[in-house]
Amino acid sequence: MLKVDFHTHTADDPQDRIPYTTRELIDRAVLLGFDALAVTLHDKQLALDSLMPYASERGIVLIRGIERTIEGKHVLLLNFRRGADEVRSFEDLARLKRREQGLVIAPHPFFPAASCLRHVIHGHADLFDAVEYNGMFTAAVNFNRPAERWARLHDKPIVGNGDVHRLMQLGTTYSRVDAQRDPDSICEAVARGHVRVEARPHSALTTVRLMADLFLADAFASRSRNDEACERRNPGQQTMRERRPA
């Protein structure tokens, strides 16, 4: 049974401010006994060619992936050889699945965020191969419960993912997959339901600290993007940060 996380982010992410590189993520995965990882940047397919030898030497299988924003909602597209980064609508996703073989996972589908699928998932059940059990939960607060019910109702497998934005998240929730050590075998095994979830809740204190860290990093990243956009529109003008009083 391979130890796999299908939902991770690294410093290459164009939206979130991540404090570690893909190689550092691989190194951490090795220490925790992982066999495979999917690096799923937001709306950007990470080029894996230069990373494959590094990962392979350390016993880690890398799976192509992207956390694509589709009609305003996040969807994990894994192991598609081409076209995943061009999907903009659920119609596009249906066309991609007809012409390419890959794995589609509903990440954190019922979490309380605008980018989560929530009610939208009901109209596109046939497009999803699996549902995510997300690692951001505590013993008292767990938004994965509706995802479990939805998966049972629609006979979909559930995968455990860390949705890793900080290295401390890796290894708290993950998947065990009965497959050979290659991306095609792993993704096919998940689609057939040969997967089980391993999940350990965060403490309330850890969750508060982690959420505060992610919120501040997101605010900083958003301000940086706004400054860059302002500079492109008005070259030479002071950015928001430069205008702040000392």
Beta-strand portion reads 15-25%
The name of the CATH architecture of the largest domain is Alpha-Beta Barrel
Order of helix and strand elements from N to C terminus: EHEHEEEHEEHEEHEHH
What is the CATH superfamily classification of the largest domain? Metal-dependent hydrolases
Give the helix level as a range of percent.
Answer: 25-40%
Q: How would you sum up the major sheet?
A: 5 strands, mixed
The CATH class of the largest domain is identified as Alpha Beta
Count of helices? 7
Whole-number radius of gyration? 18 Å
CATH topology of the largest domain: TIM Barrel
The coarse overall form would be globular
Strand order of the largest sheet: 3-2-1-9-10
Short synopsis of the structure:
The protein has seven helices and ten strands. It is α/β, with parallel strands linked by helices and 246 residues long.
What does this structure look like?
The protein is an alpha/beta fold and 246 residues long. It has two domains: 2-202, TIM Barrel; 206-243. The protein contains seven helices and ten strands. The chain has helices at residues 22-31, 52-57, 90-99, 145-153, 183-191, 204-233, 240-243, and strands at residues 2-8, 36-39, 61-63, 65-70, 73-78, 103-106, 130-134, 158-161, 173-177, 195-199. It has a five-stranded mixed sheet with strand order 3-2-1-9-10. It has a five-stranded mixed sheet with strand order 4-5-6-7-8. Strand 7 (130-134), helix 4 and strand 8 (158-161) form a beta-alpha-beta unit. 38% of the residues are buried.
